[in-house]
Amino acid sequence: MTVIYADLLFGLNLVLDWTLLRMTAKIRGIQFSRWRIVAAAGLGTAYAAVLFIPSYPILYTYVGKLLLSILMIILAFGFQNAGYFLKNVAVFYFSAFVIAGGAFGLQYLLQDARAWTISDRATQWMDAHRTTFQAGIGFLVVALPASYALFRLVWRHSTRQQQVVKQLVQLDIYIGDTVRHCTGLVDTGNHLRDPLGGAPVVVTESRLWEGVLPSEWLKRLRSEQPFDMLQSWKGTSEDGGMLDESRLRLIPYRGVNRDMQWMMGLRPDSVRISTENETYLCTKVIIGLDGGTLSHDGAFQAIVHPDLLQTSENESAYHAMPDSTHRAS
User: Fold this and answer.
1) How many Å from the N-terminal Cα to the C-terminal Cα in the chain?
2) At what angle do helices 120-128 and 130-166 cross, to 10 degrees?
3) Structural contact between residues 77 and 30, judged by C-beta atoms closer than 8 angstroms
4) Residue pair 201/316 in contact by the 8 Å Cβ criterion
5) Sign of dihedral through CA atoms 302, 306, 312, 317?
6) Does 201 share its domain with 218?
7) Do the Cβ atoms of 329 and 306 come closer than 8 Å?
8) Has this prediction a pTM greater than 0.85?
9) Reduced to 3 states, what is the DSSP secondary structure of residue 162?
10) Are residues 124 and 174 in the same domain?
């Protein structure tokens, strides 16, 4: 009679699923909720119950296992877009292969070395299982290069992701009674400044300003029509958007094709920038509005001018704040 220790089975699955999800978040540089990770690991643990439900054979198939892993990943990290989701899936399975390969190698390492020697007994076994052995060799020939390629891909992506994470900051943007919280990327290639006062420009996604700008303006921003916005300026909007006219700015910049283009900007009261070590309060800054999406995987919603973190400049009107300053969530 087969004896199954359910507590060990579920406990091992919970720890393993939790580890895989944490590895995925670490490699991808994702900010995650602990409760969502625990809930996703719990879902994977519940899958172990299929051992006791023989009436649902689809759960044993590759399709069933794939669907379960997809549900776990969505539950843990959400679904922002296809690229973000597929990268999470790839890293999740890569982590699973690494753990499985390590466990397999450790098992062989701890075995008696005499079991590895070539003997008549091993030769007899190979003769009796020649077809299976040849199929296994063929699988290894395909699997090893594929695993190496996957490792290279994930490693390169992880390196880039860690570099990006080190340059991410939290922003609190204050305009009157309105506060917007977002994540920004400090980009040394951002040289945009207000042509009138020389203030550095922080480029943000226009969707952050829903409720502050009229919805018609947001539509025109997405279609890159900043001048049409100015022509339709009334100061207020029937759909609830309201903004002081004196805050508006037009910022010239050169696009990819080197043609002169214009970006709509806003003058905030202040912007608080929080890094891992300190927090800065910036008052001489302009908020640029981009109608598109700045990060395809949703890692950040703003591009920060690097000069805003250089408090040694005499012309700047921003100062380093204590570490205890409240940070954006």
Assistant:
1) 54
2) 90
3) yes
4) no
5) negative
6) yes
7) no
8) no
9) helix
10) no
**In whole angstroms, what is the distance from residue 91 CA to residue 155 CA?**
10
| Identity of the residue numbered 122 | A
d(CA 300, CA 27): 17
- Grouping H, G, I as helix, E, B as strand and the rest as coil, residue 121 is helix
Residue 194 forms part of a structural domain = yes
How far is 14 from 41, CA to CA, in rounded Å?
Answer: 6
In a domain, 107, yes or no: yes
Both structure tokens of 72: 């776990």
Question: Could you give the CA distance from residue 94 to residue 151 in angstroms, rounded to a whole number?
Answer: 7
Helical (H) or strand (E) element with 15: helix 6-28
| pLDDT exceeds 60 at position 326 | no
Whether 232 and 264 have beta carbons less than 8 Å apart is answered as no
213 and 246 both lie in a single domain: yes
Backbone angles phi, psi at 214, to 5 degrees: -60, 145
Phi, psi of 82 (to 5 degrees): -65, -45
Q: Looking at the structure, do residues 225 and 277 belong to the same domain, yes or no?
A: yes
Q: Which residues pair with 264 in a beta bridge?
A: 250
pLDDT of residue 174: 92
Could you tell me which residue, 79 or 257, shows the higher pLDDT? 79
Residues 128 and 234 in one domain: no
Is there a domain that residue 68 lies in? yes
- Cα–Cα dist 235/173, whole Å: 21
Domain count of the fold of the chain: 2
What is the domain extent for residue 259?
A: 167-321
Q: Do the Cβ atoms of 318 and 280 come closer than 8 Å?
A: yes
pLDDT in tens, 6-17: 667 677 778 888
Identify the CA nearest to 187 among candidates 292, 275, 288, 308.
308
